[in-house]
Amino acid sequence: MKYNYWNRLIRPSTRAFIKEAWHTQDYSLFDWLHGYVYARWPYFYIGIGTGEHRLARPLGRLFGLFQRSKNGHKPGENKPQAVARGSDRVTFADTYHGKVVPLESAKRLITVREDIKLTNLEQIIPYARARDIVLQNPDHIVVLECPCRASRPNPCSPLNVCLIVGEPFASFVAEHHTARSRWITQAEAVEILEAEHERGHVHHAFFKDAMLDRYYAICNCCACCCGAMQAWRNGIPMLASSGYVSRVDEQACIGCGTCAEYCQFGALSIADGLAVVDVEHCMGCGVCASKCVEEAISLVREPGKGAPLEIQQLMMN
């Protein structure tokens, strides 16, 4: 009787999330509560993170104090002091971050047709936590209204561009956000990626410690709305480069400025009639290359930017 009562009280997707969390190594009760809050109330959570919610300031301070305590800081202690006494500090970006992926890589990532488990991807996902790709039912995809866009007073459109991939995440979001999400096929997910790319927006494969320390979504967003890009501009390294950078063919470039207009990372400018790439700021998203009518821009591998997230190659290896 008691078992049936709890089964009726707790939704199936929540039970699945609990079950998967139970089998996830080093995943604490706090991690699960954090993940539940994040997935259950993402608009509130992201609104706090982007600073748009009215409670952002007081809750932001509280969260900062908790993070310092959780990461080995004593009250009033700064980062150098914590490091000096040997504390293992994990930054916010280590727990919640995205990997920039060009369009074709994003399409391959969204069309995986078998369960996979890829761990210890530190060369590709250069963070201390949340760097595994564990896909269960990868064809289970839900499109969700983007919490970053929804938190903004004048958001870009459309809103329904966030792709939640695999279980237990897709079912959890679908079951708890019926008015703001819907199930889609892999083909429909590819259409969303292509449409967002056409708008000049960037694809990020997102990882989060509270989401079972793994990949769970592809965000398709813009510099004016995206919380991760906002954090990146403010010096918080929440985004990792794709592993590529843009290269300009000076013989083909006509200096029209279209690439600079579309660059979401401010990495392109026009000087002496030619496009110039700021390699440090270039994240290798490939938007500029797709917008150049002269085909004067291409993506090239840059070892200093890390390894690309190429899911098929990882699966073969």
Report on the structure:
- The protein has about 325 residues and is α+β, with helices and mostly antiparallel strands.
- About 40% of the residues lie in helices and about 20% in strands.
- A 7-stranded mixed β-sheet has the order 6-4-5-8-7-1-9, sandwiched between helices.
- Strand 7 and strand 8 form a beta hairpin.
- It is globular, with a radius of gyration of 20 Å.
| Coarse morphology | globular
Mean pLDDT: 88
Helix content: 25-40%
User: How much of the sequence is in beta strands?
Assistant: 15-25%
Total strands: 13
> Strands of the biggest beta sheet: in what spatial order?
6-4-5-8-7-1-9
Secondary structure tally, helices: 15
The major beta sheet can be summarized as:
7 strands, mixed
Q: State the order of secondary-structure elements, H for helix, E for strand.
A: HHHHHHHEHEEEHEHEHEEHEEHEEHEH
User: What gap, in angstroms, lies between the N and C termini?
Assistant: 49 Å
Radius of gyration, CA atoms, in whole angstroms: 20 Å
Give the uncertain stretches in residue-range form: 68-87
Structural class: alpha+beta
How many structural domains? 2
In short:
Helices cover 38% and strands 19% of the residues.
Q: Which helices and strands appear, and what pairs or packs with what?
A:
Elements: H1 2-9, H2 12-22, H3 29-40, H4 42-50, H5 56-70, H6 79-84, H7 92-95, E1 96-100, H8 103-110, E2 116-118, E3 133-135, E4 141-145, H9 147-151, E5 160-165, H10 169-176, E6 181-184, H11 186-198, E7 202-208, E8 214-221, H12 227-233, E9 239-240, E10 244-248, H13 258-262, E11 268-271, E12 274-277, H14 287-291, E13 297-301, H15 311-316
Helix pairs in contact: 2-10, 3-4, 4-5, 8-11
